[in-house]
Amino acid sequence: MSKGKVCLAYSGGLDTSVILAWLLEEGYEVIAFLANIGQEEDFEAAEKKALAIGATKFVVVDVRQQFVEKVCFPAIQANAIYENVYLLGTSLARPVIAEAQIKVAEENGCFAVSHGCTGKGNDQVRFELSFYALKPDVTVIAPWRDPAFFNRFAGRNDLLEYAAAKGIPVAQTKAKPWSTDENLAHISFEAGILENPDTTPPKDMWKLTVDPTDAPDKPEEFSIYFEKGLPVKLILDGGKKVITDPVELFLEANALARRNGVGRIDIVENRFIGIKSRGCYETPGLTILRSTHVDLEGLTLDREVRALRDQFVTVSYARQLYNGMYFTPECEYVRSMIPASQTTVNGVVRASCYKGTLTILGRSSETEKLYDETESSMDELTGFSPEDTSGFIAVQAIRIKKYGEAAREKGTPLTL
Amino acid sequence: MSKGKVCLAYSGGLDTSVILAWLLEEGYEVIAFLANIGQEEDFEAAEKKALAIGATKFVVVDVRQQFVEKVCFPAIQANAIYENVYLLGTSLARPVIAEAQIKVAEENGCFAVSHGCTGKGNDQVRFELSFYALKPDVTVIAPWRDPAFFNRFAGRNDLLEYAAAKGIPVAQTKAKPWSTDENLAHISFEAGILENPDTTPPKDMWKLTVDPTDAPDKPEEFSIYFEKGLPVKLILDGGKKVITDPVELFLEANALARRNGVGRIDIVENRFIGIKSRGCYETPGLTILRSTHVDLEGLTLDREVRALRDQFVTVSYARQLYNGMYFTPECEYVRSMIPASQTTVNGVVRASCYKGTLTILGRSSETEKLYDETESSMDELTGFSPEDTSGFIAVQAIRIKKYGEAAREKGTPLTL
Amino acid sequence: MSKGKVCLAYSGGLDTSVILAWLLEEGYEVIAFLANIGQEEDFEAAEKKALAIGATKFVVVDVRQQFVEKVCFPAIQANAIYENVYLLGTSLARPVIAEAQIKVAEENGCFAVSHGCTGKGNDQVRFELSFYALKPDVTVIAPWRDPAFFNRFAGRNDLLEYAAAKGIPVAQTKAKPWSTDENLAHISFEAGILENPDTTPPKDMWKLTVDPTDAPDKPEEFSIYFEKGLPVKLILDGGKKVITDPVELFLEANALARRNGVGRIDIVENRFIGIKSRGCYETPGLTILRSTHVDLEGLTLDREVRALRDQFVTVSYARQLYNGMYFTPECEYVRSMIPASQTTVNGVVRASCYKGTLTILGRSSETEKLYDETESSMDELTGFSPEDTSGFIAVQAIRIKKYGEAAREKGTPLTL
Amino acid sequence: MSKGKVCLAYSGGLDTSVILAWLLEEGYEVIAFLANIGQEEDFEAAEKKALAIGATKFVVVDVRQQFVEKVCFPAIQANAIYENVYLLGTSLARPVIAEAQIKVAEENGCFAVSHGCTGKGNDQVRFELSFYALKPDVTVIAPWRDPAFFNRFAGRNDLLEYAAAKGIPVAQTKAKPWSTDENLAHISFEAGILENPDTTPPKDMWKLTVDPTDAPDKPEEFSIYFEKGLPVKLILDGGKKVITDPVELFLEANALARRNGVGRIDIVENRFIGIKSRGCYETPGLTILRSTHVDLEGLTLDREVRALRDQFVTVSYARQLYNGMYFTPECEYVRSMIPASQTTVNGVVRASCYKGTLTILGRSSETEKLYDETESSMDELTGFSPEDTSGFIAVQAIRIKKYGEAAREKGTPLTL
Questions:
Q1: Is the pTM of the predicted complex or chain greater than 0.90?
Q2: Ranges of each domain in chain D
Q3: Which residues from chain D sit within 8 angstroms of residue A369, using beta carbons?
Q4: Where does the Arginosuccinate synthase-like N-terminal domain lie (chains A, B, C, D) (predicted)?
Q5: Is D390 close to A388, i.e. CB distance below 8 A?
Q6: ipTM computed for the complex
Q7: Number of helices (H) and strands (E), helices first, in chain A?
């Protein structure tokens, strides 16, 4: 008798194939689930393999549009970034995949969900917290944290032997000396030889972007239009190419950045599970979209709104995303703060890509008038009188003079 | 009889030459002051001119070392950045110049200081708040905010005519269609044709850095060592060049970035005087030093210390610097928070520059052990048990499950 | 010929009566405006006096409901407080009065508005920034900052003489040795003898609340119901009195606090105009409503939402209100963050007042289930296993053990 | 053969007595440890009992001075408060006790430490994170999270039976229907009948403070002097009593508050272990010391330093203390920010207590001159000109007028 149905996040790789077989061995019925979130993947081969191993069913869910519109675009609006550098490509994908998996689990009467994440990473946390929020009574089976599993499969050889014994086909290609995770927005590289933070990634590791030294010798110009902080139009090829569909726009931004070597980073980051880890990432299109968005905010967003948003919303949102806290009260709260900050972020940014560099060429807005050319001119005197500034400075100085006086009186005059 | 001595920040240009003459005409005795803060400048010519116009004395003060060690280096430690993009090159220079000017004023018995800043910019605020803090009883003469002056000199022609009348020599070169401000750390371009935020800066505007398309075709590698967050050694040329003196190191970082086209930006920023303005900046060496410092913090700085520093210190410090609040109680307070965050930021970052791009190649630290290769490995199980993570997730989930349950009960189940 | 119509905020007191006469003398036509915001005031006498002096018209606008519902209630939702102590009673009133005055100005074709605020206080800033936001082209006439006025009226005697000359009746009662400002939410006392921050306010200064030593000898119990963070029902007299109308509820809370001596404070605060000033305040009802609201949030608000709201919204909102920034993009932004934080703040708080003390007696919520009696019980083991906590602690400890180890290795073991 | 020595935090109560016996039964040798942190306790009886049960040794460590000087006083300097209400009395004690226990463990060659905290509370986290930081290789034995223990002792009866079987004397007094934790700074009451958050605590529960209704009928006045934010002198009895020793001063502040019914609170708070719990607290002296310190900061602390400290230091520090993160890099970092904020907090506050109410009567400072009576006067015009304020407002209004204009142009004029 079955112990019940489990919905397993199945990639077709060695790990989740072994997990599938092991779950069956443990007496569960397994629904294999695979999200199409824009990764390069042979979905048919995965389906064949899952069914061959013994899955009752194989379900692919295309979440690309949701991924772009529901999470990537708001991340652009919020300028989301983790530890000054990381654009959160993996973190953004997790709630989308988790929601799809829970839906498949519920539609197929599964009491449990399972995944192949390791016990030290962020992804287990991101998936499971999302699972629990979306279906608080779900059971989570995490084999890599179950001694019955991880003691049995202590190394890659144990997995290979088990695969052989179970007749699971294994790709003949030699495993790469690092792990990757890919989606429409990015690919990550970590572990293996990258664990030494001083090892420069080999040139052939990078996958999505051309090496800057191999990129075209001429800058490529383009324009991106934003409405309420959302990218709504991308113009390339000197105006010959105009894209407005969100997913198409995102893909075209990817292609643009990829061929010009834009979007690579290499960092040591702080995982939620209090350890540090080294990651290399390619985030081509998102890098372009975020940077042009930041630029447009300079022209169209009020100074104080921007400062509040930067210090509180951007920072909180990035941390919540990174820590897998998408489906939490606090993240719902922070997300509710994004649109109100973006009502004036309307306009177009012109920019170019060249051998890894993104350069802003100019920006304009037909509707927003916060920037006033005449007013910011050094030469003209509209809007306010220079004498007003004297008063402004005098009032600012009240507190500061007192500070300087006190320092002198206490015998410790101010210095650099 | 003289109305008293005024110490004028004198650049040798048209504006401050006219101001000098006008101050004399108004009955003041003038001490001309010029800071050597690393700008390209003909100090001798300026001296000759000042004395020819009628200054009692011309004083140059070399503040380069102070500038690098007292303000640029702490800015690197704090990762200071304004509105996500601007590295504060001008802002950093102001307190250093102001302090030198006040010292010259006091040494020469001046009751007042004067400057040629316009009435709409940030610099007038930065200088004057520093003046008032350092010498609370000082009088500030700001001709561009004095109707007696600005009504008389309404345009460039008025200045030229006055110069001619006073026999002040004017450079024959045509004035550039923008203004600049230069120091050891950067040069700024603004006003003139740049006031249209959609105008791409002409290629020949940029001065400090080579155009990325003209930069060498091969990445140039280098290493930077940090101690307590401060750059202490720069190695180039495959180890043939080793620099440790702070100013030399800074200059060499400049040269490296300059020849590889690194450090250009173009933004619309929010001035303290509530208007927006467009600025183009070249900040070559500081860009390299800041980015490598950020990278090393990934390896050596505790997650939570970094998060607190990022959200509070970096943000507050940048705003204070930008707004001219260096000599204030709050900036003194924030500066006191920098060293305590940097005790572990010791190590070396390897990187390369190439046609405008800066790439991190690796990083290491002999003394700091927060990063543990074995521990972050996906394959090994030292340090903590994978089962611990189950408990960690379970406890994190308590609150989140309740949130999911409440949403279901209220008939609004959670979704993306 | 008239120089045009001015809408003057007129209180009937000596200052604004002199200003009225002076404006007329200066050639303006004056519309006298007086807001009824709940202060104790003889509106009819003021009208008679204004018209007698020469105002074209006298307009009273009753803004009490707006004041309670539009600004006091959101302040309760946000727990607004300035510098840990001050409940912002005056600040809250300013945008309401300014909006009413601008409306009167526009309805009566006034090109300018005028007020009697001094040149050192917060109120001038609060009024004028609101005026400019609501009617950017308005002219503001601030006599106490106009040398033509303040040089002429250097002291109270000058005002009295002018009043006598103009036939303006002056109240025979001796002026109190402090100034006050009163509205439905509070009364402030400042200036005069209070300027010495070490002077204890005389017992007879306090006006709205009974002295705690004279308050009843028995605690008075009551219950307040909140919906989405807004007070919706107040029950007193052992259930005999039930109030639900917002203004009535606010007034009844006032009466309750007044008779029990609740809501007095005495502080030295930091004005927006960088000086410190001493203020004494009575804020009876608002003290009760805010404190019970804070208590209910403990029961019904998620921990992280609360922390975000406390650190960002409460703090920013209070500062904006205090500085007169109600009608600004950033305050609009922050206000938009309040309702989303309050969706779960539904329930009732029971409390008592006694001789200046407010005591919480209990709280409950029929709809919100974040608090779970069984779960928080020390004795029962529902919800999660104690072993989960071991994992939680183990994961938290990863980073901390490393910190302890590093300290030991560096020869500086951790101590208190 | 012994499994090794364990240092057990032993209170003499039923729980830790059973744990002591159980540890012995499990084969450990036990060193019983009891901190004297100012709680009411029969230390001799505890010693006798521990040795009778079988402890090898009983060690009392007097940590009262450390508790006051090392943690309570900095908490006063930082105005530490959790969730607007709780003064962190228990949290403050934990690092002090943990450090003493680790020292005893090390001096007695114990490989492990043990405690009687439940598996749902904050204290287990606070103790254990401190243990791990101070001695990263320590083993922690937490019986209430060990199934071998908690399954055996499922209820109080199991404990009583085991105690009887082992000959452990049990106090004849009936257990109170709540738990308490006491130290020099406070006592907490929770669990039992208090778990219903709507149950008003019975009058006889409160222990440290007199009921406000029973307190004296006359306000009692006193003065507290601070130096660099630390209480250095308390004067009572109309000057007859002067205390300067830190511990004595703290005890006297306790006595003063106790007899006047000051310092009770009742809240529902958010535990680190994501659940809510209800707690009642008496924190007599700390309430007085913190409130007077807050008041003195009004007079002596710069506005912006205060704002930064409030928003970042106070909030972060309180959260760290509550969550048991005292010995962490981030708390060390935040603690380093306290003294720099307090250099000017020098002066004296006069206040009174009366039936639960604390009233500030006045404050002064001989050394700090940030407050300037003349300057804050409404009537006098020293320091700056009222016209300066016009400029100040005009510059502030630039951005705001633009906001108002944009709103009008977009057809949505600003309103409350």
A1: yes
A2: 5-64+75-175, 180-301+344-364, 373-409
A3: 402, 405-406, 409
A4: 5-169
A5: yes
A6: 0.95
A7: 16, 14
